[in-house]
Amino acid sequence: MYEFNFQRPANSDAAIDAQANAEDGQYMAGGQTIIPVLKQRLAMPSDVIDLGAIEDLSGITIADGTVTIGAMTTHTDVATSGDVLGAIPALADLASMIGDPHVRNRGTIGGSIANNDPAADYPAAVLGLGATVHTNQRTIIADEFFTDLFETALDEGELITNVAFPVPDQAAYMKFPNPASRYAIAGVFVSRTGADVRVAVTGAATCVFRAAEMERALAGNFNPDAIEGIGVDGTDFNNDLHASAEYRTHLVSVMAKRAVAKALG
Amino acid sequence: MPTLSMTVNGEQVSGEVEGRTLLVDFLRENLRLTGTHVGCDTSQCGACVVHVDGVSMKSCTMLALHAQGTEVATIEGVANGDTLHPMQEAFRENHGLQCGFCTPGMVMTALALVKDNPDPTDAEVRHGLEGNLCRCTGYQNIVHAILDGAKAMREGAANEGES
Questions:
Q1: Is residue B163 assigned to a domain?
Q2: Which residues, other chains included, contact B53 with Cβ-Cβ below 8 Å and sequence gap of 6+?
Q3: ipTM, 2 decimals?
Q4: Which pLDDT score, from 0 to 100, does residue B163 have?
Q5: Which residues of B touch A48 (CB under 8 A)?
Q6: Which of A103, A132, A166 is a domain's end point?
């Protein structure tokens, strides 16, 4: 790692000021991605602004059919939260599949979605549930948050405070994990709320996306049979040593059907 | 340089570290607690697992300053003098290791797993080991060791309750 100035502000305002005043300030949430990146000298921030001491960025609340998760809430806390397990078990299930136990003990929802790794799990839940991302400046709907490979709608210095998930009628997440990293080679999050169906795909392309044709088919008939034969266009899918684009295209259909079956219980 | 203070295996320690110093490097280089290993240095292998405030973490993927004011437990603090902890004894009895390089992380992971789930199934142990790589054993005896260690710890706790 290159040297940096480590700052650990006690509240969000101080963190935002620290970032604004730094020559090149980098927020650090759980650090499970940014520390490996720093180790490889792929980033050289002048200041690392650690968010770990900001208590009001962590925690889970439920009110009026919405589960609100603080940006610094760890994957373990989401996976084991009685509130999340009761209201959106699919979200707890997804959190329990991220990485490994030690990574889940430090990694956070805010860090995951701000990074927007194309194979990360949380973007699928945020998009698949139609969540809203709250920042220190504004609210951003899921459909506008994830913009491209490792890119989001966040502005420089903008800080995620929490993510609000509407409670669906049914939902589930299925992924085909890379056996070493547990990142999704392809992962599909499905949810149904009344007649509104969302299908979000991660791992397959450069950025999480919604499978519109599957959504239309499932809106009429929320059953795995409804998407039999309905695939996704994998022309631009990731094609790497882990899986070919063709294989990922196939996996998306399989994971989508399994996710619907899982949502139905 | 910032000053770091924490409790390691029950003892108060402090030292000067750079912002970029990893927790594992502070433990190994500053405190000479070399039982915590660096296997891959890429957050995959789990040889560096320690407990921070009772929670298992990869000490190669957190900064030393993240542990400011916390209680850190390493493999050196697990045995009671020359008496192995029941979990360590179970690894010995079951031959849950070959070269032994991954063992400190395996034992620390096992202790964290059993703390949350005192009577795990075979499948739960395997799921709990997803962050720990062993390149020798094929995991079979590690899983046996953790199941036996968990049993010994349950029995130990029950005996303590009776006496």
A1: no
A2: B70, B71
A3: 0.95
A4: 58
A5: 19
A6: A166
